[in-house]
Amino acid sequence: MKRESQMTKRSKYGRLTSDLISQLKRIAGDGNVLTDERLEDYSHDETLGIERFKPEAVVLPETTEAVSAVLKLANEHCIPVTPRGGGTGISAGAIPSYGGIVLSLEKMDRIIEVDADNFVVVAEAGVPVSELYKAVEAKGLYYPIHPGILSSTIGGNIATNAGGMKAVSTGVTRHFVLGLEAVLTSGEVIQCGGKYVKCSTGYDFTQLLTGSEGTLAVITKVIIRLTLPPGKTEILYIPFSNLKDAINCVPVILKQGILPAGLEFWEQDIVKPVEQFTGREMPLNKHAAYLMLILEEPDEGRLNRLARRISDICLQNNAVDVYVPGSERARKQLIQARESFYLALEREGIAAIADIVVPRSFIADFVGQVHRVAERHSLKIITCGHAGDGNVHLWFADKDSPAIRQRVKKALVEIYGIGVEMGGTISGEHGIGLAKKEYLGIAVEKSRLDLMRRVKRAFDPNNILNPDKVF
Ligand SMILES: Cc1cc2nc3c(=O)[nH]c(=O)nc-3n(C[C@H](O)[C@H](O)[C@H](O)COP(=O)(O)OP(=O)(O)OC[C@H]3O[C@@H](n4cnc5c(N)ncnc54)[C@H](O)[C@@H]3O)c2cc1C
Fold it and tell me: In order of start, what are the domains of the chain with their CATH numbers?
């Protein structure tokens, strides 16, 4: 059967007439409906090498009632709606590829309550995570999930089930979402979960909506579990003379029962772009590969003992050296360097990033095979990632061009196949969005895809909510 073209698929949808724009203005307020040159800002997110699509209007609701009325109107007129948080996504999930309305949650940015008795924060979905951290820390509490960019919103983090560097010991966003308020395309508002950890009361829509990438409902309010802040933090930065030794050291550490807050690896090729981007030299910057461990312990004594134990293990397993920053400033600089990988490589004009996850004991084998695939396709790949949780990021480091993109696509099919064969999957934390949907079938078998489609139809029978995404 011939595949429908993008144009044919788009033409099934209604257009935003001036009358509908007026109705949107009555719902959300005149200043909260954009139809001018600012549409350009909402035509892209942070995804590499992907086409931009302008929406017909951007709506910035300030209340759940307004979100509900916008969705109801859009549903009645079959207008596509793309929910958007901070626009920092890297799978093109917030790009309005069918036009219509971008529904940006950026004005729903209130912290409703930090409930210190129940260790929860209740907030609107558009709160940037930077503000969430500040609000909970002011009450002596802590939200341990740190995706690499602070302007992302808590609603966007939930919609993508964001991960970050600390998944090894704490888990990912989904492990901290206790409840949600969400709006269905019918305009109905549902409340899922609450300020409690246990719940055996019917289907768990909180978890279903987490990671649903804006395709099932618009998340308007969130209830997040908090912890106490870590007592003391240290970083171990450990160079190796080859990548294999670095990665092979990871299971040795973990098998000792040591669970650091973060355990990252990267290759030498990333060092120079990062130094150029941050304007700072990295310590011990001439080695082939690195591990970086983030340690969080309740007191100084335990922290130092753990740091010594890990250093010994690494040195016995071919580490060249162990660098302990020792000061808060040096620790921050290392974390900042790690967090700047994406922006540093993006500035180099690289073609793509992939976000595969494999069982962590397979990382060394996986990375070895990835480099062989890259060689066959004459591509340059730099690997790095969250070694402690098996999440490997591949940077296709050739300068972006249509010819390179074609080669990257072919290589990716092979690489995803290898990852899935090892028991992994094609996205660990960035989501599928528009960028990876053509590969979803490699990781998800037909019966599960069909079930996903039926779930989608139950939530969104007219397929107006983030159409063109995930599948
Ligand atoms: C430099 C950099 C570093 C990054 N590091 C990490 C990292 O370490 N770990 C990681 O996991 N990700 C990382 N990311 C990716 C990105 O920050 C995350 O995917 C983040 O969760 C997106 O949040 P956002 O608010 O920007 O969402 P957006 O980009 O606006 O949207 C992402 C998706 O969520 C949907 N969505 C957004 N808000 C809602 C809502 N309220 N209701 C329903 N659907 C919604 C959108 O439709 C879209 O499908 C990084 C990105 C950059 C640019």
Answer: 6-104+453-459 (3.30.43.10), 111-225 (3.30.465.10), 232-342 (3.30.70.2190), 349-430 (3.30.70.2740)
